[in-house]
Amino acid sequence: MSDTNAIDIRGVTKYYGHGDYRVAAVREADLSIRQNEFFTLLGPSGCGKTTLLRMIAGFEFPQEGDLILYGENIAEMPPFKRPINTVFQNYALFPHMSVADNIGFGLKMLGRPKTEIQARVAEMLKLVRMEHLAGRATSQLSGGQQQRVALARALAPAPKVLLLDEPLSALDYKLRKEMQVELKRLQAETGITFIFVTHDQEEALTMSDRIAVMSAGRILQVGAPRDIYDRPADRFVADFIGETNFLKGRIGAIEAGAAKVDLACGVSLTGPLPDGASAGDEVTVMIRPEHSRLTREGGALSGEVASIVYFGTDTYFNLRLSDGSTFTVRQQNRPGEESAIGEGQTLGVMLPDAAIRVLRG
Ligand code: ADP
Ligand code: MG
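^ inputs. structure came back:
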């Protein structure tokens, strides 16, 4: 039911520029974001994530389509009237103001009584675990602490929806991991709907309830992390999320909803028939490297080990198949298990049925 959604985006299109310089930053976007969801917009730089977020916030207006907030059309509603707040990548804190004054700033602008502001600021300081730094100027804080202040400030007026535009990209790896956990905790504790933007697929997979994958202004797929990873809708999504082997082929036969695909390397693999595909169509078989295993005897595929890359937790074995294409097998390393596999050996690849996905085109 749409009235239980926090936000419904219906047929939204946004152009920038005019004439030959016109760019469709977002095209015919349809998306529903549920209440209390940790929702992520994921896609490469320039795909339209920020533009979509800015339309939700009210800083930009779509030329076509509707934006519905809790069942109400907000197309004409100015940003400050929307129960929505944004955390920007650069935090945009007031450097000479104290942590507490930064957090209370929005409430002060709304003209709330002083005692209410003080109580709310104290609550927010506790929420982001910054009580001991309440009086410090934000210019005297580390990057992670500034990020917490920015979050507390955005959460202070109790928005219904919090927008976060690549908020972690300025932090180093370890701090980013810490803040990912922190953001999940804040979302769970406040129950506020979070719309999070990132170009980092791992960040999206680990943090989100659901993800929308975008490319060139379009939403290609919406789903839970597992759906997107295990059942990507198309080649772009399969390629952008995780690592994937792609093998070109043609559907040789269809039996009981399964497509038997004749691959260029001379082998046939069987997987679920993609919607609308028929015998004779050119298709691509996708197989995740970690879903395959090397074997000395048998196997659905076989190839020569061209290179071996040790990654600490795993090892990548890059095989050359008979048609010259490459297939990567990723195996977990176990203590005391020295691999006897060497370059130049010809080995088989074991593939469980569920590892094989067939994509159109
Ligand atoms: P993302 O946040 O995914 O990197 P953006 O939403 O910032 O993508 O940009 C989407 C597209 O719109 C890009 O092609 C970008 O160059 C263009 N664009 C963004 N903002 C403007 C603007 N103010 N004027 C003109 N083009 C813009
Ligand atoms: Mg952006």
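The pocket of adenosine-5'-diphosphate (ligand 1) is lined by residues 16-17, 23, 25, 43, 45-51 (CB under 6 Å). The helical segments are 49-57, 99-109, 114-127, 143-155, 173-190, 201-207, 225-230, 235-240.
thumbs up if we can close this ticket
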